[in-house]
Amino acid sequence: MEYFRTIDISTTEQKIHEYLTLSNLDKFSSEIFNLEDPHENEAQIGGIWGEFTLIRNKIKGGCRFALLECPNALCWTITTGYPPDPESIVVHLTINRTEKDNEFIEEIIEFLDDMCQNLKLLFS
Fold first, then answer.
1. What is the DSSP string of the chain?
2. Number of domains forming the structure of the chain
3. How far apart (Å, rounded) are the C-alpha atoms in residues 104 and 86?
4. What is the overall mean pLDDT for the chain?
5. What span, in angstroms and rounded, lies between the C-alpha atoms of 82 and 96?
6. pLDDT-based confidence at residue 50 (cuts at 50, 70, 90)
7. Which domain holds residue 50?
8. For 57-61, what is the mean pLDDT?
9. Residue 116 maps to which CATH number?
10. How far apart are CA 59 and CA 76, in angstroms?
């Protein structure tokens, strides 16, 4: 399953790399949090789905985040400069399932809505 959000804010790949660090996790998500001081690209986090190792990778256009131990292989990207909307921030989240129960889907939607709200504040 995949989910897209577009945030009508112009930014750059460099700003996404600079602002979206694991040390700044609380600035762009209220749903997940660091359990200990993060390393540059890896952190132990807690949140609505339990405890996981969260990794961050710089990618073309922005950053990719993934929950390593997640049985749904949940990951998301935050990018700019490319389709579907090169002038905006695009958040794209995926899981490795074609179907999930409604409660989990609602949690994903809440996670995305929270992240988008925080990204609007961070990049405005």
1. -EEEEEE-----HHHHHHH--GGGHHHH-SSEEESS---SSEEEEEETTEEEEEEEEEETTEEEEEETT-TT--EEEEEESSTT-TTSEEEEEE-S-S---HHHHHHHHHHHHHHHHHHHHHH-
2. 1
3. 30
4. 97
5. 24
6. very high
7. 2-123
8. 98
9. 3.30.530.20
10. 12
